[in-house]
From TrEMBL:
It is found in: Cytoplasm. InterPro entries: DNA/RNA_pol_sf, DNA_pol_Y-fam_lit_finger_sf, DNA_pol_Y-fam_little_finger, DNA_polymerase-Y, DNApol_IV, IMS_HHH_1, Rev_trsase/Diguanyl_cyclase, UmuC. Poorly processive, error-prone DNA polymerase involved in untargeted mutagenesis. Copies undamaged DNA at stalled replication forks, which arise in vivo from mismatched or misaligned primer ends. These misaligned primers can be extended by PolIV. Exhibits no 3'-5' exonuclease (proofreading) activity. May be involved in translesional synthesis, in conjunction with the beta clamp from PolIII. The lineage of its organism: Bacteria, Pseudomonadati, Pseudomonadota, Gammaproteobacteria, Lysobacterales. Binds 2 magnesium ions per subunit. This is DNA polymerase IV. Monomer.
Amino acid sequence: MSPPVRKILHVDMDAFYASVEQRDDPSLRGQPVVVAWKGARSVVCAASYEARKFGVRSAMPAIRAERLCPQAIFVPPDFTRYKAVSRQVREIFARHTDLIEPLSLDEAYLDVTASKSGLASATATAEAIRAAIREETQLTASAGVAPNKFLAKIASDWNKPDGLFVVRPRDVLGFLEPLPVGRLPGVGKVMESKLHTLGWQTVGDIRQAPASVLEQHFGRWGRRLHELSLGIDDHAVQPDRPTMQISSEDTFAADLTLAELEPHIRDLAGKTWAAYEREVASEHGRIARTIVLKLKTGDFQTLTRSLTPSTRPASATELADIACALRERVDRPADSRYRLVGVGLSGFVDRDSFAAQPDLFDGEEER
């Protein structure tokens, strides 16, 4: 017997941070709200739909957002409040399934193939979740319903904001065929450009290409592209995904040299270590093997240096010492300046599998 078709939801809160601010401050409702610290070095965390009409988007420099929408109201982010609302939403999800895979504070995958609530369909479950979110948080969410994760994620964006879209198994091929190749997961701007150069504009174009030709151009990823064009995605919803990386970073009001970064690195190491102890405490026996130093130059190039020591750091001070030492591996003139620094921990493994290794430094990444 073939396994039952999965019923997957992707639930995405609408303009989450900005919507929380508008909910909690009635004077902001209907106004173009930008969640960001105002300043030349700040970036936009979120924008209300009123601000998005002017082209304001998450992750753009706040100063550009201000130029695009001079009347925007800037509100500093309050992640404590956002996390509290996220927990409320997660509790609503848990009434319907234990298979919940959070992607961030404002979105998650849910497998409702066997719904705890006993509702007749995945569509009914999505509607019930959206209704509960609206009633209990006074916020809206959009949802996609589909037989797998990547289709559900595309569907959740279809009728935003406050929308629901369903891709039924019988409709998968027809739904995908006209979509631009950039809608497929993993196809960024560079890959999209390569596919266009080869004459593949839509998902339907990729489907018509032999899998062997795609594999010839892109290796194993080509085979994956062919599967996606057919709507095939066997990745299961993974509840309580283990932590892969913890980091803290800071953008400066004025660019600094490497020599001037030490107090900032030590401060960030303390924050990263505190988050490590707090967030990984529930993941019994997992430890971080690798220390990462991230730098962004004045001209926006990103550099990373990492070290996997034979003895892992046992305190914030040791983490800071290693992160500071990684500056010596930055092959740049001493007077080079940096607008951002970050300190991270990665390479998480089970404690039992941790083994001493020789020092290993990664090469420079510039992008």
